Predict the 3D structure of the following.
Amino acid sequence: MLKRQTLFYLSPVIFGLLQWAAWPPAGFAPLLFLSWVFIFYAEDYTLKFRLSKWKLFFNVYAAFFLWNLLTTWWVYNSTAFGAGAAIICNSLFMAVVFMLYHSTRIATKNLIGRFTLIPYWIAFEYLHHHWDLSWPWLSLGNGLASYHRWIQWYEFTGMQGGTFWILWVNILIYQTVTTFSKQNVLPKAVLATSALIIPVVISLLIYHSHEEKGREIAVVVAQPNVDPYHEKFNGTGREQLERMLNLAETRMDDSVQLVVFPETALPDGIWENNMETHPQIDRIRSFLSNHKNASVLFGATTLRFYENDEKIPATARKHKIEEGYYDIYNTALMLSSSTDNLQVYHKSKLVPGVEKMPYPAVFGFLEKFAIDLGGMSGSHGVDKEPVVFETSSGVKTAPVICYESIYNDYLRKYVNKGAEMIGIITNDGWWGDTPGHRQHLVYAKISCISLRRSAARSANTGISALINQRGDVVFPTEYWKKAVIKDKIHLNDSKTYYARFGNFFASASLIFSAALLMLLLIKKSSAQFQKKS
């Protein structure tokens, strides 16, 4: 009894440490298939010894808190308040979902069993990608990003196929362990082993047989390595642009069709009402006049002033000097040698608490705690739909800004609008030399595999790289060093099953979870009615 009780209290620590030891960028991912066994033990211990649900809740909350803390502590480098809120709230959401599953298991008298956790968890992850408090960084399927040779079948399932796989194998292993002394253990052991190994074998076969699709183009990616805390927003926008252009110039020739600069490459703030004539935009035009086949994808801080007769959106802020309102945007721009017209896309997937105040009617008072990204704190304006850019040579590019690169479902929209490649512009320097920027890089591999699109990734500080359609990272730069990459990538206009039909795991899980919740409510209502009778 004492040993069992000790394991119950140690289970959250073991779970948290295993999740951390498995997590990208340098984790040993196979541990993900064992870690949940200890959570299941804690749940069964609670049921066997009739402990209160609160005891289980605090146990699993501690487990999820440790996982969140050990894998995302680096957010503290940019915002202590944001880090605390993300870790505390995300752990709470996870614990609530687990307790919901636990209540369903009790209400159905274990008839449906432990497997009900899978639809609940996948539904939670999907919804967590689609609300104001979105923080999908620790979606379980992301934990396999460093082992991209194991997850080539994400082109059929998307990232949440990995979530299903991890939970399914954990449940099968737990069932095998708990029936180890019984005669029927062998079939369960065979099933658990098969569930773990067969997807890996299938993936390796896909990986080694895959051929890059589409024509090739030459791409140049610049990493200027501007210190975001001391250089980036101190009125040196012109010098920063010159640094990027000089880097790119060292690798330019007539074969280059796309040049990629990072997020907020132009940081000073450009009014969109007269953006076409801005001196820094003209400087990029001057660069392109010497490179007739090229286009430049780059980021900027832009602002839009609303005229009196225009509808004022909720994100707009009052101008401090003039009468009227304006919006501020984290913007991707493309300028091509063949036209003077700027292509514009405003970042849609905003970072909660930094670029967007979730549910402002409730949390608006917290806006003062948001990190000030060079005058960019507070809620930003957004585009409601992704915009596909087209280079002067006709290359259709998805302009993906920073945090957006981990939203596979959102990137699907680009592909269905014709995007042949992904251009990721980011600035990962806010987190320092921590696992944060390395996790961000490897997560991008999941989108490349799921959609079979190559990516050109320009980080101001962090890791710039090219990623092919199999998820291989090519020519990664070093952290905190100026660098420039030139190589060829393949364009692809065909659509994967996932790109075409979407996340069927999420759709099925939402329906099944709704049915389970309905069953749970009926059981609860029936129990209360019988008690009153």
The two ends are 39 Å apart (CA to CA).
